[in-house]
Amino acid sequence: MTDESLDPNRVWERLVHIVMDSRGNWQRRVVDAFGMSFTRVRVLRRLATAGELTMSELAHDLEIDGPATTVVVNALEDQGLVARRAHETNGRVKLVSLTDSGRDLLARARRIELPAPDDFRDLDQADLAALMRVLDRLG
After folding, report:
1. Which of 35, 49, 68, 128 is 20 to 30 A from 2 in CA distance terms?
2. CATH among 3.20.20.70, 1.20.1310.10, 2.40.170.20, 1.10.10.10 for 3-138
3. What residue segments make up the domains of the chain, in order of their start?
4. Which residues sit opposite 96 in a β-bridge?
5. pLDDT tens digit string along 68-91?
6. d(Cα 63, Cα 48) in Å, to the nearest integer?
7. Half-sphere exposure (CA, 13 Å, Cβ side) for 104?
8. pTM
9. Residue 7 CB: number of other CB atoms within 10 A?
10. Each residue's pLDDT tens digit, 98-127
11. Are 110 and 95 spatial neighbours (Cβ–Cβ below 8 Å)?
12. Cβ neighbours for 113, distance < 8 A, ≥ 6 positions apart
């Protein structure tokens, strides 16, 4: 391993590629199970983490534009999965949060197994423990 391969950006890029290349099958299973786009599932997951977000915060976090965010939130609200309310001090700002139904759907989505890639399963316990220590430090 060279010093160049330890550049944080290169390490991050490799990690992202590993994750992105292995998530497709799981995403399709979630979409098939719930009959909704994965973007909608991402909104639910983000709200579960944040608790409540403005529409603009949600758009920023998901890297989608405002009109697309509105379409997604409208659909989730129509399904009873999220609730939208006016901000206490700025009536033009809308806050979005999960409903009990949204939390329930998300809990069911999380039970769909996300299998590790084959190469990942081949790591020994020492490597897995080292990786888990790093992940714990990162959040």
Report:
1. 128
2. 1.10.10.10
3. 3-138
4. 53, 84
5. 999 999 999 999 999 999 999 998
6. 17
7. 6
8. 0.71
9. 11
10. 999 999 998 998 888 877 888 888 999 999
11. no
12. 26
